[in-house]
Design goal:
The structure is a single chain. By secondary structure, the chain is an alpha+beta fold. The chain contains 6 helices and 8 strands. It has helices at 20-28, 30-33, 44-52, 56-60, 105-119, 135-143; strands at residues 3-6, 10-14, 64-69, 74-84, 89-96, 125-131, 147-153, 159-166. A hairpin with a 4-residue loop joins strand 4 (74-84) and strand 5 (89-96). The longest helix is centred in the C-terminal third of the chain and has 15 residues, at 105-119. The relative contact order is 0.15.
Length: 167
């Protein structure tokens, strides 16, 4: 388990197959995945298979990271960077258990990821994508310094927005 960074309250580390149960439970809540375009895993084994085959760390040197509360070692959700080879861009993303919403964990971890991307990974630009209706995530993107770039079609039914920050 590779530790990536720490903030005042949080530890961010690589996800492992041992996170499968938390990963599964996180996506079970319809409120958590409402704006993601993702569906729930059918069971813990499917979540474990996803994690066992997660190649971003090896391919890009970074990825989505588990967010752990330092005081009690609780798995709160994930936050991190994702490189899209087809678009040649890196996005910041985050997903937390609903009981941990509105406690500042998303901006705290996402800001740390942005800083890490610019200082340690020498990335020049990071984008954030959200469905237009996802006001909470848009507020996090704005809070960590991203600015509105453009609208796009998130999927057949939903409009989305792209926010951007440059080093």
């Amino acid at each position: 388990m590779k530790e990536i960074l720490k903030t005042e309250r949080l530890l961010l580390r690589e996800l492992t197959p041992d996170d499968a149960e938390n990963f599964y439970k996180l996506n079970l809540n319809p409120n958590v995945i409402k704006y993601t375009g993702n569906s729930a895993f059918k069971d813990i084994d499917e979540a474990k298979g996803f994690l066992e085959n997660y190649q971003d760390y090896k391919l890009n040197g970074f990825g989505r990271w588990a967010v752990i509360e330092k005081s009690n070692n609780e798995f709160l959700g994930w936050c991190g960077l994702k490189y899209d080879k087809n678009l040649d861009e890196t996005d910041i993303g985050f997903r937390f258990f609903e009981e941990h919403w509105n406690k500042g964990f998303a901006p705290e971890s996402a800001q740390a990821c942005i800083d890490y991307a610019f200082e340690n990974l020498n990335l020049k630009t990071i984008i954030g994508r959200a469905m237009s209706e996802n006001i909470a995530s848009i507020k996090v993107l704005e809070k960590i310094g991203l600015s509105f770039e453009k609208e796009f079609d998130f999927d057949e039914k939903n409009k989305g927005v792209i926010y951007k920050i440059q080093k």
